[in-house]
Design goal:
The complex is a heterodimer of chains A (347) and B (293).
Chain A lengths: L3 E5 L1 E2 L2 E2 L1 H17 L3 E7 L6 H4 L6 E6 L8 H15 L3 E5 L2 H14 L3 E5 L1 E13 L5 E16 L4 E6 L6 E5 L16 E4 L2 H4 L8 E7 L11 E5 L6 H14 L2 E4 L1 H5 L20 E5 L5 H5 L6 E6 L12 E4 L2 H16 L1
Parallel strand pairs in A: 1-4, 1-6, 4-5, 5-12, 6-11, 7-11, 14-15, 14-16, 16-17, 17-18
Antiparallel strand pairs in A: 2-3, 8-9, 9-10
Chain B lengths: L3 E5 L2 E3 L22 E3 L1 H16 L4 E7 L5 H10 L3 E5 L9 H15 L4 E5 L10 H8 L3 E13 L4 E8 L2 E8 L2 E5 L11 H7 L13 H10 L6 E3 L19 E7 L8 E4 L2 H13 L5
Parallel strand pairs in B: 1-4, 1-6, 4-5, 5-11, 6-10, 7-10
Antiparallel strand pairs in B: 2-3, 7-8, 8-9
Helix pairs in contact in B: 2-5, 3-4
Classes of the chains: A alpha/beta (347), B alpha/beta (293).
Chain lengths: 347, 293
């Protein structure tokens, strides 16, 4: 009853970082609300998996361990959450805004008739006054709700930030991208209850309808999330060839290359380098934005960077307002000089 | 065997090209300043549907959209490219819908169409980027789903199974799923074929009733009597037997508490030019401060 739940995603038998980040956030929300933090882990061969999550302050770990639950398929995992939530009636459920979370979350919300907000960049607890029509004197009727989950996300092309609340339905569901929340171990010896459920009770055999014939997961080719310096390019870089300059500067600085969505959509770089609300969130020591105008979705994914350097031919680019250093110039003009003078001054 | 294919399409404001006039001074979205376009990933879904139709002659493609009457434009675009039938679900009471209410409305429309083997849609729409409506429809229709699809590799009509390549985090997988099925297609899938000139000639005057000017209604009705394919189906909430508590604002659990324009916490920036002296000065300063190097 009333708990905060996190659906923990696994690869093999390892709980993913995005889920551990959400456990840290979930612990804080649960503390604010004065309730328990619980989590669900579903997969195969999960002996001892609770050790990975308990240190994040989980009060109760629900384990569903059966062949057929890994690799993930939609229906069995939906059945687990829907049936468990019918019993437990949690007030909040958080998931990664990953392929799995974005496949599973909407199914669960549809089955339970609950609200779900995708790709949140902040989560808070607060009160909500909802106007529901007018009374006889034409005054608005206001319903007051306390301690609801504010689901905050950029919306509409990143021009606005919307705070979404679903006050009347449970659980309040939200997905969050990897890297948006910070992962912090609460107590390595945190004591929580571990429940190993009878999977057959929750998942009818008929739900195993999709067969995974073949599956390739590669280790990430780069470590954008953890890089101390990021050189990121936007549409203003101009071409795939021009991105080579970013890679060259990144090589010199031992940095990683990132990109805005516009640069990814234009085909300048691979999708996995996208920084922002619908990509990776980064917090490097130095962020060098090359030809990035700075739509809110992008800023959402890099605003916590230490030093921000913006190279832009448009002196009024929005990103310049959050930059520590603004270089008015084109990427073609400035980057070769940066490479040259870095080399000259480090020899 | 011929397949009954349903494609879900949405007309969306083109948020990819947002200009400074996209917001009104009051901080609301200035929809008039944004061109309306066919949601890009729905076009990828249409292409997968057209490939199935090529492969299984006699198959039919029904395109369903929910929106204002002018969203019939996406139906016409689909007809130009090879779709057979179009349905525009439009009604005042459907406004203000979140993804859950939208999925209910579309699932009712699909039920009304009735016979379907596969339902295809884009992974997500660019005005919301939620990717929720496809899976929510699948759940409501009691079907399974394959999201993030890259390609329908094969479809076995006798065994009623389909093999699909899809994206997962950090990789790809190939899955086999039973028909009927909901599939949401990625933007990286094959792009949609262009319009067919003959079909453009045939369907360019196809409309829903709500698009027709009142003074020309009789004239159009007379013309369409001889050319029934120029009538795009227009359905209201009653036509799809919708429960009014599950559509529009009433059927939406999510509420927007606040919307605000972004105000960046402006820093005091140091502004410089791209001259050699300025760039070298910055590099040396960052090196001296041990920020880089």
């Amino acid at each position: 009853m009333d708990s905060v739940y996190v659906y923990c995603e696994i690869e093999g038998t390892t709980v993913k970082d995005v889920s551990l980040e959400l456990l840290t956030k979930g612990r804080k929300l649960a503390n604010t609300l004065g309730v328990k933090l619980e989590c669900v882990i579903a997969g195969a061969g999960l002996d001892g998996v609770e050790k990975q999550v308990l240190p994040f302050g989980v009060d109760k770990v629900h384990i569903f361990d059966a062949p057929g639950l890994f690799p993930y398929t939609s229906n069995p995992h939906t059945s687990i959450l829907v049936n468990l939530f019918k019993e437990e009636d949690p007030q909040i459920c958080l998931m990664g805004a990953t392929v799995i979370g974005r496949d599973l979350g909407p199914r669960v919300s549809s089955a339970l008739f609950s609200g779900l907000t995708a790709d949140c960049t902040e989560l808070e607890i607060g009160d909500f006054d909802m106007t529901c029509g007018l009374d006889a004197d034409k005054k608005p009727i206001v319903k007051h709700f306390e301690n609801k989950l504010y689901q905050i996300r950029p919306a509409f092309g990143g021009n606005i930030v919307a705070t979404i609340v679903n006050p009347e339905h449970r659980p309040q569901m939200a997905t969050v991208r990897e890297g948006v929340m910070k992962k912090e171990v609460l107590d390595p010896n945190y004591k929580g209850e571990v429940v190993r459920h009878d999977v057959a009770k929750y998942v009818p055999a008929a739900e195993y309808v999709v067969k995974v014939l073949d599956r390739h997961v590669e280790q990430a080719k780069h470590n954008l999330k953890g890089a101390p310096i990021v050189v990121a390019g936007g549409y203003g870089v101009g071409s795939k060839e021009n991105f080579d300059m970013l890679f060259e500067l990144a090589k010199e600085l031992h940095a990683e290359v990132g990109a805005s969505r516009a640069a990814v959509d234009a085909g300048f770089v691979d999708h996995d380098r996208q920084i922002g609300q619908t990509g990776v969130t980064v917090r490097p020591k130095v962020y060098i934005a090359c030809g990035i105008s700075g739509q809110i979705q992008h800023i959402a994914g890099m605003q916590d960077s230490g030093i921000i350097i913006s190279i832009n031919s448009d002196p009024n680019a929005p990103i310049n307002s959050i930059a520590d250093y603004v270089i008015n110039g084109t990427v073609e003009e400035v980057l070769p000089k940066m490479i040259k003078y870095y080399k000259q001054n480090t020899k | 065997m011929a397949l009954k294919i349903v494609v879900l399409a949405k007309q969306v404001p083109d948020t990819r090209n947002v200009g400074p006039d996209a917001m009104t001074p009051e901080g609301t979205v200035n929809r008039a300043a944004l061109p309306a376009v066919f949601n890009p990933e729905d076009l990828n879904a249409l292409e997968q549907a057209l490939r199935l139709k090529d492969q299984f002659p006699g198959s039919t493609i029904s395109v369903v959209t929910m929106g204002l009457p002018k969203s019939a434009e996406v139906i016409r675009e689909s007809l130009f490219r090879g779709a057979d039938f179009g349905y525009v679900v439009t009604d005042r009471c459907l406004g203000g819908a979140d993804t859950l209410a939208t999925s209910y409305t579309l699932s009712q429309a699909i039920r009304k169409i009735g016979d379907y083997d596969i339902i295809l849609g884009g992974r997500q729409a660019i005005d919301g980027d939620t990717a929720q409506v496809g899976p929510q429809i699948a759940e409501k229709l009691g079907l399974t789903q394959v999201t993030y699809a890259e390609e329908i590799i094969s479809l076995d009509e006798k065994a009623r199974k389909v093999v699909i390549k899809r994206h997962i985090d950090g990789g790809v997988e190939t899955v086999e799923a039973p028909l009927p099925l909901v599939v949401t297609v990625n933007g990286s899938a094959a792009p949609c074929r262009p319009r067919n000139a003959k079909r453009v000639m045939k369907y360019k005057n196809a409309t829903v009733p709500a698009e027709r000017p009142a003074e020309k209604a009789d004239e159009i009705a007379a013309r369409n009597a001889a050319k029934p394919y120029l009538n795009i189906n227009q359905w209201g909430a009653a036509d799809i037997d919708a429960d009014l508590n599950q559509v529009g604002k009433a059927g939406s659990p999510t509420n927007v508490k606040a919307v605000k324009n972004i105000v960046f916490k402006a820093k005091e920036s140091r502004v410089m030019t791209g001259s050699d002296a300025d760039v070298e000065g910055l590099i040396v300063e960052l090196l001296n401060d041990k920020i880089i190097g």
